Amino acid sequence: VGVLKGAIMVMADLSRELRFHAQMDWMVVSSYGAGTKSSGVVRILKDLDSDITDRDVLIVEDIIESGLTLSWLKENFQSRGAKSVRIVTMLRKPTLQKVDLEVEYVGYDIPEDFVVGYGLDYAEDYRNLRDVAILSPTMYEDK
Fold this sequence. Notes:
Blueprint: E1 2-4, H1 8-17, E2 26-30, E3 43-46, E4 56-64, H2 68-79, E5 84-92, E6 105-109, E7 115-116, E8 133-134
Parallel strand pairs: 1-2, 4-5, 5-6
Antiparallel strand pairs: 2-3, 7-8
């Protein structure tokens, strides 16, 4: 399950590397709005199209900061009857993590800087950058 919109690049690259049949589905959840910090309140904007009862689920995420969204999502999938729920993320900011969350696969641990590119955005901009870059605070402070 890819978490849109940020995980689109990670999901595309990961799916091309799989050497077994895997079904894909997508969810859109939000805890940000247009800001640079998570509000902690998770809203489902697009739910799964598939039933995950008795299925092994891998949540594909672009970045984990507080971990609140992923913790909520993992519990939500378990309550829907998933056989197992694991998490893969491209980036994680361990110093910002607020909950104990087991993440099976982490691409890179990074510092607290606000990053964009490769699916990551600021107010829907910069997702299409080929690389991950630190967004200068002058681009979002005092806005």
